[in-house]
Amino acid sequence: DNKYYEQIGKNLIDITDEIPFEIPNNWVWTRLSNVANIYTGNSISETEKKAKYTNVVGRYYIGTKDVGFDNKIFYNNGIAIPRKYEQEFRIAPKHSILMCIEGGSAGRKIAILNQDVCFGNKLCCFSPFAGIERYIYYYLQSPSFIDMFNGNKTGIIGGVSIAKVKRILIPLPPQPELERIVAKIDEFVASIMNR
User: Fold this and answer.
1) Measuring CA to CA, which residue among 113, 127, 32 is closest to residue 73?
2) CA 52, CA 80: separation in Å to the nearest integer?
3) pTM value > 0.70
4) Dist. CA 99–CA 111, nearest whole Å
């Protein structure tokens, strides 16, 4: 019937109105929560930060200010979580993606991690399944995603709840095509960087 459906439990829900554009027949639309673990980090008060986590040995703690608009992360910011406190913090694993989801930088600061880190509550970690992290990383910067993300912003400071982020749709190609897409984008990005 040329409609898109989502199965929730035993119910089939018509989601045709949510679909932003047509995709090839061998692709599927799915929710971000179906392709990645998605969660926010932990906040630390300034007092606690100075007393327990400044200039100590431990796992880097990344805040929004440490994720640049240039898709890079500043790791050595002077804040770290010693091993004895690690169980109190959420960890974003190496190769996962951190994106700001609150404030003026929401949806605009994004980077892939090159190591495990602890991270702040205004950042969202996308820890993808099955080695598709670069595809998700590029999709999170696409006009399609940005439109859906901005359409879900609420509040005075402008943010998107984790529940809404999880429900955003992503078009998923077959694995060989996904790998070709990522390779082409990598190649394009490298050529821009080398200019």
Assistant:
1) 113
2) 9
3) yes
4) 7
> At residue 72, what is the residue type?
K
Tokens of 148: 């859906």
List of residues 6+ apart from 175 with CB closer than 8 A: none
Q: Which of 106, 107, 127 is nearest to 32 (CA)?
A: 127
Show me where the domains of the chain are located: 33-166
- How far is 137 from 111, CA to CA, in rounded Å? 8
| Cβ contact 125:141 at 8 Å | no
CB 110 within 8 A of CB 67: yes
pLDDT in tens, 53-107: 999 999 999 999 999 999 999 999 999 999 999 999 999 999 999 999 998 899 9
Architecture of domain 33-166: Alpha-Beta Complex (3.90)
